[in-house]
Amino acid sequence: MNENIIFKASKNKLTVVFNDGKKNFNFNEVSNSFCERLDKSEKFFCGKNKIDFDIEFKGHDFSSEQKEKLTSIFYDKIKMDLDLHKKNFEVKKNHDVADNKDLKSIVCKNSLRSGQFLHYDGNVILIGDVNSGAEIVATGNIFVMGKVKGMLHAGINGDKNCIITALNIFATQIRIADMISCIPEDKIIKQASRVYISDDKLYISPLLN
Which residue ranges form the domains of the chain, and what is each CATH number? Predict the structure, then answer.
């Protein structure tokens, strides 16, 4: 049934269509199929699509509680995919992604405008953009499913194993722990990228080669 779940993305909305043709449905079966469909749709969400939207579910007469459950599944899966990306980073063994299992994580789906900031004791997952003049500061890792033009500072308490990932990094300054990367405008990587520390140097490189 998961092949009959269709994603339709517009500028400000993601519509999930359950096109299985069933008038009467079992919500557990539907939610399980949604999970399977998300597992197969990593490229859809990690490509060039701007992920700053509301989510709408069509095809079944879902209750408000069921819609909230499906929305929760979506954000849980987004977080899981990011964790899988972390395991695939080609960095030295001693500089792998921080093991932040004991840290809390927060998921936000709104873009940050100029003058807005998000400071969090843990990992931050932002589904949206960080516009110029906005900032995210975290004790853990920072994942941005969108463009970064503002300031990001991961590992604020000095954890050099933290990483930063984003779909597009236009910012000229990124920080991890006490290290700062000043990126010349002509060297900005305008694609999905990761920032990490290795051998006491801060690197930024494409996430997918």
Answer: 2-87 (no CATH), 94-206 (2.160.20.70)
